[in-house]
Design a protein that fits this description.
The structure holds two protein chains of two kinds.
Chain A lengths: L8 H27 L7 H19 L2 H24 L5 H19 L25 H4 L5 H19 L1 H11 L1 H7 L3 H27 L11 H11 L4 H24 L5 H19 L19
Helix pairs in contact in A: 1-6, 1-9, 1-10, 1-11, 2-3, 2-4, 2-9, 2-10, 3-4, 3-9, 6-7, 6-11, 7-8, 10-11, 10-12, 11-12
Chain B lengths: L1 E5 L5 H25 L4 H9 L1 H4 L3 H27 L7 H19 L7 H27 L3 H21 L35 H19 L1 H11 L1 H6 L4 H25 L13 H11 L4 H25 L3 H18 L1 H4 E5 L6
Antiparallel strand pairs in B: 1-2
C-alpha cells in the first residue's frame, strides 16, 4: 500500500544532504583539477580507495578521524600516480583516468577482503545545543555530522581561492592556456600535480564518508558510480563551485526520493526506481551540454614544455 | 636530467616492444603485490602465466582460454575503432548486458519451439540491442553535444538494474522453483551456443571474434571509412577539410562498438553462461578497454592482447583456487598492466635523451 504521508519532509531534507555529501566532496575536488586543465576520470577509483582506506584505518585504530586522514592520504597518493603518468609520461588523460578507476576498484576489493560485515567506530555528530531542537530546520539542516558542514566550508574555500587569491588565478591561467602560463614562468606541471593530489584527497574523503557515516560498512564496489556522477556534476555546474552544491543536492534528492518511494511501496518495480539517479544524470547532462563556453580551454590537453 | 624529444613519427620498434615491456613490469610489480599478501611471488606468477598453458591440467584450461578471449576480443575490436577516432565508448559493459537480454528474450519468447532460425534471430536481436544502447550516447552527442563518456557509463548502471529486474521478474524461469534467473538456454537446443569442437572452448562467439579481427584489419587499413576514422582521431581539423563528417563517424563507431558488445553478450548468455542471472555481467566490457590498449588499438594486437588477458583470467582463477589469492587481486593486476602500458607508450612517441643539467 502506498502512503506518501509516511515521508517526513524534514527527514527527507536531512537524508538528502547526507546522501549528497560524498559526491559533493568528490565533485569539488574534481572541479579544482579540471580548472587546472586536467581531466581525471579516475574519481570512482579514488573514491572507492578512500572508502576502504578510511574504513580499514578507523577499524584498526578505533578513531574515525584517523580514518578520514588515511583516506585522504591514500587517495591523494593514488591520484599522484595519475598525475605523474599524465604530467611526466605525457599519457592520454582519458585512458589513464580509466586505468585509475579499474585499478582502484580491484585494489580496494583486495584490501577490503577482511573487512566485510564489520561495523566501523561511530562517527561523532555535531549537535549544537538548542539549535537542533528548532522545528523542521533543526532536524533538516542543523543536526548533521562535522563532514557535512566541512563540505560546505570546502566549497566556500574553493570558491574564494579560485576567485580572489593569486594562486587561484594562477591555477585558472594554467587551465585556460598552459603554454602562456608556462611562458610567463609558472611551473605548469607542478601546479597540476598539486591540483590532482587535492582532487584525490577530496574524492578519498567523499569515499570515506560513504563507508564510515552514510552506509556505514564496507562492500565491494560500494561507490556504485558515485564518482562518475561527481564528474557529471562538474559539467552540470559549468565549473562554478556553488552550482556544484546545487547539483549535488538535486542528485541527493533524487536518490533519497527513490529510496523513500521504495520504502513506502510505490507501484513501480524497485529496479526501475534504482535507475533514476543515473537517468536523471543523463538528462541533466543533456540539458547542460549546450553551454561549452565555461569549460577550461586547456582541459584534457597534454602539456610538454618543448613542443 | 632527462629530456624528451618528440619523434616526428611514432617509433614502430617501440610500438611493438612496449606491450611486452609492460607485461614484464606488471609481472614484477604484481609479484611484489603477491609477496606483500604473503604468497610466493614466483609461484603465483607461474600459476597465472604458465600453468594454464603448459601445466599439468593445461588441457582443461586451454579451452577456457578461447572461451574467455572471445568476448574480450569482440568487444575490444569495436571499442578500438571508436578510440582511434577519439570517441570514447566506455559503456560496453552495458551494451553487452542489453545484447544478452535481447538475445535471450527472443529465445525465451520462442520456447519451446525447435527451429533452425531461432539462433540466427537471437544473434540479430543481440546485435541490434547492443547497437541501440550504443546509439543513445551517439544521438545525445550529435544532437546536444553531451559527453559520450559519461552517458555511456551511466547507461551501464541502468543496464545492470534492468538485468536484475529481468532475472527476478519478466525472464525468471517459471519452472525454476522461485529461484532468480531465466531458463537455461544450453538445455534448449535451438537457442544454444555450444562448444563447436570438443575441448577447444570454441563457440560461435569465438568464431565471430576472429572474424571481426580480420574484417577490422581490412576495414581500417583498406577502406575509405577506416581511413576517415583514423584521420579524425589524429587531426580533427584536417579531417573536416578532407570531407569527414564527424557526426557520421560518431554514429558509426558508437553503433558498431555497441553492436559488437551486444553480440558478445548474446554469445555469452546462450553459451558459457547459459542464462540471464543477476550476476551475469562479469566486467568483460571494462576489461576490453584494457585489451584495446594492450593491442595498441590494432586488430592483430587486440587479438594477442585478448588472449593474454584471458590468460590472466584463467590463471587468476587457478591462483584463487590453489593459493587462496582473492579474485580482486587479478583486477588490480589488470589495472596495473594498463598503467604500465600507458607509461611505456612515452618511448614510442618521444626519444628520451640523457642530458647534463644546463646552467642558466
Amino acid at each position: 500500500m502506498m502512503d506518501l504521508s509516511a515521508i517526513s519532509p524534514a527527514a527527507l531534507v536531512a537524508a538528502l544532504i547526507a546522501a549528497s555529501t560524498p559526491i559533493l566532496l568528490a565533485a569539488i575536488g574534481e572541479l579544482v583539477v579540471e580548472k587546472s586543465g586536467v581531466l581525471n576520470l579516475g574519481v570512482e577509483g579514488m573514491m572507492i580507495t578512500g572508502a576502504i582506506f578510511g574504513f580499514a584505518a578507523s577499524v584498526e585504530t578505533g578513531s574515525p578521524w584517523l580514518g578520514l586522514v588515511a583516506a585522504m592520504i591514500g587517495s591523494a597518493i593514488l591520484a599522484l600516480i595519475f598525475g605523474v603518468l599524465t604530467q611526466y609520461f605525457l599519457t592520454n588523460q582519458v585512458a589513464t583516468g580509466l586505468a585509475l578507476t579499474l585499478f582502484g576498484l580491484g585494489f580496494s576489493a583486495l584490501i577490503g577482503q577482511g573487512y566485510t560485515g564489520i561495523k566501523p567506530p561511530p562517527f561523532p555528530r555535531l549537535d549544537i545545543a538548542g539549535l537542533s531542537g528548532i522545528p523542521f530546520f533543526g532536524r533538516a539542516l542543523l543536526s548533521h555530522d562535522y563532514i557535512v558542514y566541512l563540505s560546505i566550508l570546502l566549497v566556500a574555500a574553493v570558491w574564494y581561492f579560485l576567485k580572489y587569491t593569486r594562486p587561484g588565478l594562477v591555477l585558472r591561467a594554467v587551465g585556460e592556456n598552459h603554454d602562456a602560463a608556462h611562458a610567463i614562468g609558472y611551473n605548469v606541471t607542478r601546479i597540476r600535480l598539486m591540483a590532482v593530489a587535492f582532487g584525490g584527497a577530496c574524492a578519498g574523503l567523499g569515499g570515506a564518508y560513504l563507508a564510515l557515516v552514510q552506509v556505514p560498512q564496507w562492500t565491494e564496489g560500494m561507490t556504485a558510480g558515485a564518482g562518475w556522477i561527481a564528474l557529471a556534476l562538474v559539467v552540470f555546474a559549468s565549473w562554478k563551485p556553488w552550482r556544484v552544491v546545487l547539483g549535488a543536492y538535486i542528485f541527493g534528492g533524487v536518490s533519497i526520493l527513490q529510496l523513500n518511494l521504495q520504502a513506502v511501496g510505490v507501484n513501480i518495480p524497485v529496479a526501475y526506481l534504482s535507475m533514476a539517479p543515473y537517468i536523471v544524470t543523463i538528462i541533466v547532462l543533456v540539458i547542460m551540454s549546450g553551454d561549452r563556453t565555461s569549460a577550461p580551454a586547456s582541459l584534457g590537453r597534454v602539456f610538454h614544455a618543448s613542443s | 636530467m632527462f629530456r624528451l624529444e618528440a619523434r616526428p613519427q611514432p617509433s614502430r620498434f617501440w610500438i611493438a616492444v612496449t606491450p611486452i615491456l609492460a607485461v614484464i613490469a606488471t609481472m614484477i610489480a604484481g609479484g611484489l603485490m603477491f609477496a606483500v599478501l604473503g604468497k610466493d611471488p614466483l609461484a603465483s606468477i607461474r600459476m597465472i602465466f604458465w600453468d594454464p598453458l603448459m601445466g599439468e591440467y593445461a588441457f582443461y584450461y586451454r579451452g577456457q582460454l578461447l572461451t574467455k578471449a572471445g568476448p574480450l576480443i569482440l568487444i575490444a575490436i569495436g571499442l578500438s575503432i571508436g578510440f582511434r577516432a577519439g570517441i570514447w565508448n566506455i559503456g560496453a559493459e552495458g551494451q553487452y548486458i542489453i545484447g544478452a537480454i535481447c538475445g535471450a528474450g527472443v529465445a525465451l519468447a520462442a520456447y519451446p519451439v525447435q527451429a533452425w532460425y531461432i539462433f540466427p534471430l537471437m544473434v540479430l536481436a543481440g546485435g541490434l540491442g547492443g547497437w541501440a544502447w550504443g546509439m543513445i550516447p551517439a544521438i545525445l552527442r550529435n544532437r546536444f553535444g553531451t559527453n559520450e563518456i559519461l552517458v555511456s557509463l551511466m547507461l551501464v548502471y541502468v543496464a545492470q538494474h534492468l538485468l536484475s529486474s529481468m532475472a527476478l521478474g519478466l525472464m525468471r524461469n517459471p519452472e525454476g522453483m522461485g529461484f532468480p534467473g531465466s531458463r537455461n538456454l544450453q538445455q534448449y537446443p535451438s537457442a544454444a551456443n555450444p562448444e563447436l569442437i570438443a575441448g577447444t572452448g570454441i563457440h560461435w562467439g569465438v568464431v565471430a571474434a576472429f572474424l571481426s579481427v580480420i574484417v577490422a584489419y581490412v576495414f581500417m587499413s583498406r577502406h575509405m571509412t577506416g581511413f576517415q576514422i583514423r584521420l579524425m582521431g589524429e587531426s580533427p581539423r584536417a579531417a573536416t577539410f578532407a570531407g569527414v563528417i564527424p557526426k557520421r563517424v560518431v554514429t558509426f563507431t558508437l553503433g558498431l562498438s555497441g553492436a559488437l558488445a551486444g553480440l558478445a553478450g548474446l554469445f555469452e548468455v546462450s553459451g558459457p553462461a547459459g542464462q540471464i542471472t543477476i550476476d551475469f555481467a562479469s566486467g568483460y566490457g571494462f576489461t576490453a578497454i584494457i585489451v584495446a590498449f594492450l593491442g595498441r588499438l590494432h586488430p592483430i594486437g587486440i587479438m594477442l592482447g585478448g588472449l593474454l588477458m584471458a590468460l590472466t583470467y584463467v590463471g587468476g582463477n587457478l591462483v584463487q583456487q590453489q593459493a587462496g589469492l582473492p579474485a580482486a587481486a587479478i583486477q588490480a593486476f589488470q589495472g596495473m598492466l594498463l598503467f604500465f602500458l600507458l607509461a611505456f607508450d612515452l618511448l614510442s612517441a618521444y626519444r628520451v635523451r640523457l642530458v647534463k643539467r644546463e646552467h642558466r
